[in-house]
Amino acid sequence: MKKVFSMLAIAAAMAACSSGPHYVINGNIEGADSVLFLLQKRDAGSMVTIDSAMAYKGSFKMKGGPVDKPEMVLLAVKDSRMRTQFYLENAEITITGKLDSLYGASITGSKTHEEYSGLVNSLNALSDKYTEVYNQYQIAEQEGDTALSARLVKQIEAGQLEMTQMQKDFVRNNPASFAAPQVLAGLTYEMSGTEIESLINAMDTAVANTALVKELKERALKMKAVEVGQKAPDFTLNDPEGNPVSLYSKVGSKLLLVDFWAAWCGPCRQENPNVVRVYKEFNKKGFDVFGVSLDRSKDDWVKAIADDKLTWTHVSDLQYWNSAAAQMYAVYAIPANFLLDENGVIIGRNLREQALYDKVKEMLGN
Fold it and tell me: Which CATH architecture has domain 20-109?
């Protein structure tokens, strides 16, 4: 009798364990037969496999947990580029799709993922709308219709602002969503540290305590130190000849653009002709540029300076994203720039294309 009671107790304990918080992933992937699927997440900069299952005739199941909090994971086919991402949480999640288009699989059962995918779908619809406008803009440029081109540029810029606002609204209106930090992280280039901090402060405690939000808090603090209105912090890096040059050795011009870029950065190289145009027109009126490169190769850096005809002062420590200046100025994406007045006070940030020209013209006149 004692033995029977003991076995019943063990069975009850096992049942209690199995009924605790956990995840179940049901996969129905057409074309997947004898295919090994890996469930992976990013940890300390590397992808770590947390579960796996072999699919037979398109079906597989994974079960595990508990998951402390919803987090973005990858479902990937071993030794291939086929994958899709979703939010994993303690729920029964169903993934349905085709092996050759796994990225487009339908994912249901995860509340966090449904919140996130709702935003993504809205952004995609808006993107499709403005892609058509961009196509019209390219045609207008090819045909030399400058008036139409200018109108379409304004529409494209309005679309970009609308997409940014949609994401900000999602973060603001979903303070308990574990998808909100991921969305906010993608917006930091377009926001001030103060604005980022205000959105973080409005988040529910559980969300605010995630590792990503803690990282964003640190980022916001750095960004607040280099916001418009702040005195730009000084730094010293070497020029291409190995001579140390400090930022404040260049401050004193009526306007100084601190321009973060790199030879390997496509958008930077596309923006360079615009900076050259502004420099040529306004240099004699007091506009100067201080180029800070995030390159790793000195040869590539020097070649890009020559190829793009960047005739102003350049510095770099050739440390890529670990650049001391980039860290100091909270630069997490390039091109990035800071416009300083003659006293070293930041009066503009991330001014590109026409916005840079307009701001410099406004400050220096015709």
Answer: Sandwich (2.60)
